[in-house]
Amino acid sequence: MTVEKFLVLLVEDNPDDEFLALRSLRRQGLDNVVVAHDGEEALGYLLGTGCPAGEAAAIVPAVILLDLKLPKINGIEVLRALRNDKRTESVPVIVLSSSREECDLKCCRELGALAYLTKPVDGKELVGILEQARLLNAPCR
What we know:
Helix content is 35%, strand content 18%. By secondary structure, it is α/β, with parallel strands linked by helices. The strands form 2 sheets. Strands 3-2-5-6-7 form a 5-stranded parallel β-sheet, sandwiched between helices. It has a two-stranded parallel ribbon with strand order 1-4.
């Protein structure tokens, strides 16, 4: 399992939010992004479930940007599954959500989310968090 050149996994089901997040990331120089459109697809990519033979969890992203309100498997369950798997337990996760519910914030904190950002994504704020966590060596601007 290797971490590819700053690969970002964006887990987002809303096409408008996906477009805005990708545009924001690209403006900050983060253009190596894979998109999963639901929780099941994200876990398939990260844990190898549903992947063709030989591709199971070959690449681990440097960071995961995770929406909470996802079809099939919600974001909190995705985060819980990631933390319960040795291959992904330490991958940084930044939650992106329109929810401001205290229970969502608390649960994400307890599951070790690096940050909780409300939508729409502010690329500069995101890069600042990545730099502060020392996931980026230098500003991408």
